[in-house]
Amino acid sequence: MTGWLRWLRRLLSAALLGAALPSAFAAEPPGRPAPASAKRLLLVTTTMGWRHSSIETAERVIAQLGAAAGSFTVELAAATPPPEPRADATAAQHAQHANERVAYADRVRVVLADKLAAASLSRYDVVAFVNTTGELPLPDPEALIAWVRAGGAFVGVHSASDTLHGFRPYIDMLGGEFHHHRDQVHIEAVNLAPEHPATRHFGARWNLGGLLEEIYLLQNHRRETVQPLLALDRHPHSGEPGYHGLSWCKPFGRGRVFYTALGHNESVWELPAFQQHLAGGIAWVLR
């Protein structure tokens, strides 16, 4: 094969590879070393309540987004709980599981004490709570709030709003709190911020590609205190007209906060449109 033919084949291969990637990230091939200017994202996926099966998918997708864009690297704050006992488990197996849960809670405390202590937060540019649940044993909850208020960046995904119910400053920072959900449904979200980097790739409405999703009904959420990005204009189950926030952003002191209630299902995480929604939100909090 002549030299120019080899050159043409390499060019076509590169073009096809770029076309297979989401357009927002095609310029940066995955796996390349992060530039020195890359931001550091702390990805927290520990849980003290329900653990979503999509957590591992979320960890992989967020790491791929950072690598593809070359804009941030990911450090995990994660611990895997023991599996729940089977329905026919014996008393001894239940007792063993109880001991394993205690050990798991200790591991969570160690992980969070290392990553989220006041002195540790300065290592990161953004902290992301992704499908976290329950009363996480943060070493210093007030330090996290103060860090964001002083100019830090915070991202919350799905059950980040089902986290730290007992610590109201966190709920106030996030801008909303999980109240309940019902069966998964098909939705048509209204794009309320067509110029925002998290939503400008959507049309006027987005139906999640026709996928089912678990939709949260929220409390302690007021539209006027945030910049709404995606919302429903009717109740997801009754169909009654009204505002139901799905995604928003907000300044918080000198810092920034982005939240999306989507992300329950693995299939949603695999959607390029959802990945671009999340990447745009991360880009916004990182300015």
From TrEMBL:
Keyword Kinase: no
Annotated signal peptide: 1-26
SUPFAM superfamilies tied to this protein: Class I glutamine amidotransferase-like
One Pfam family hit: ThuA
Residues covered by the ThuA-like domain: 40-285
Keywords, ordered alphabetically: Signal
Record-given protein name: ThuA domain-containing protein
Originating organism: Pseudaquabacterium terrae
